[in-house]
Amino acid sequence: MLIRRGSDHIPSSEITPEAVYLNRRKFIGRLGAGAAAIAAGVPLGSQAHAASQSRGQSDELTPYEAITNYNNFYEFGTDKEDPARHAGNFTGHPWSVDVNGHVSKAATYDLPDLLSSFTPEERVYRLRCVEAWSMVIPWQGIPLRDVINYLEPTSSAKYVAFQTLHDPEQMRGQRARVLDWPYVEGLRMDEAMHPLTLLAVGIYERPLLGQNGPPIRLVVPWKYGFKSVKSIVRISFVEEEPPTTWNIMAPQEYGFYANVNPEVDHPRWSQARERRVGELRPRPTPMFNGYGDQVASLYSGMDLTRYY
Ligand code: MTE
User: Fold this and answer.
1) CB distance 141 to 123 below 8 Å
2) What's the whole-model pTM score?
3) CATH superfamily placement of domain 12-299
4) Which candidate in 34, 44, 171, 225 could, as Cys together with 129 as Cys, close a disulfide (CB 3.0–4.6 Å)?
């Protein structure tokens, strides 16, 4: 599928060229503004947290235009261009998040209030989709474990479940039953507590645009992109493995774990290679999307052909 160059939605003057962005990152220190500022729609300008060691040196950042014009967000349509076309007015504020289940601080939180307790970090992560395309994205977000520690789950909490907003008036894709709405996802508690797991609030130091799942979405870099649930309104701490949207839709094709694995093919296509958006030649897909040294131990002893 072709990616539109030159977006209708973002004036080119607003896009930080990657070279400028990278150059600037050499000079910037810790992020001054709170995460709430990003989530509330305040561009961060030149402030950012110089952080990530999570990216291989050879990874070039995917241009902002591609990250914001080639999306999966079925709430706004099933074509890759639909979210950019239809999510323009979807800003994600005001926004509240319902926290429930086995957790001490169960409550409905106004998002800026909740986020004001945390310092966002910058993490450059690869997002690898099950359809075999990938991007390298400079995210701004809060490690999910910081939020979980703050919320104080009890020892009965074995999994964390997430739910996307259900609002067919704003989300035209939800007027058709393409998926079993609302979109739901989940992680085992140790996956949720892993330092790589992020609650993202920005990309390229800008608040998430409608198509990327504002005001807050998950990013789990060693898993296929469908685990990275967008526009989260509910976080539940549960005892049993929670249902997940793509597993509900096609259990033989999409499992709960969804770890990037070149050796376990999707029943209808190979997962051995991937194409970086913007590149012509596919490249081999690394195990766990290249984060194996940090996450493989979470799955030791598990048969990954069974727990796909
Ligand atoms: N979250 C919701 N609520 N709805 C979706 O359709 N698509 C998933 C994931 N999160 C999706 C979602 C899939 S399949 C992918 S690959 C990523 O979002 C894409 O994220 P991006 O569009 O920001 O690159």
Assistant:
1) yes
2) 0.88
3) Oxidoreductase, molybdopterin-binding domain (3.90.420.10)
4) 225
Distance (angstroms) between ligand 1 centre and the Cα of 230 equals 6
Q: How many A from CA of 228 to the centre of ligand 1?
A: 6
Report the pLDDT value the prediction gives residue 143, as an integer from 0 to 100: 98
CA distance 228 to 178: 19
Count of CA atoms in the C-beta half-sphere (13 A) of 40: 13
Looking from the CA of residue 218, the nearest atom of ligand 1 is 10
Q: Give pLDDT tens digits for 8-64.
A: 333 334 445 555 565 555 433 333 345 666 666 655 443 343 344 444 556 899 999
- The CA distance from 36 to 290, in Å, is 31
Residue 128 CA to ligand 1 center (angstroms) comes to: 11
Kindly give, in sequence order, each residue whose CB lies less than 8 Å from that of residue 303, ignoring residues fewer than 6 positions away.
none
Our answer on whether the CB atom of 225 is closer than 6 Å to any ligand 1 atom is: yes
Is residue 75 in contact with ligand 1, taking CB distance under 6 Å?
A: yes
pLDDT value of position 59: 86
Task: Give the type of residue at 227.
Answer: K
Ligand 1 nearest atom to the CA of residue 183, by list position:
3
> Per-domain residue ranges for the chain?
12-299
Residues in the chain: 308
User: Is the CB of 73 inside a 6 Å radius of any atom of ligand 1?
Assistant: yes
Calculate the alpha carbon distances from 32 to 120, 137, 145 in Å: 9, 21, 21
CB of 197 within 6 A of ligand 1: the answer is no
Using the mean position of ligand 1's atoms as its centre, give its distance from the Cα of residue 2 in Å.
18
Q: Is the peptide bond before 83 cis (omega within 30 degrees of 0)?
A: no
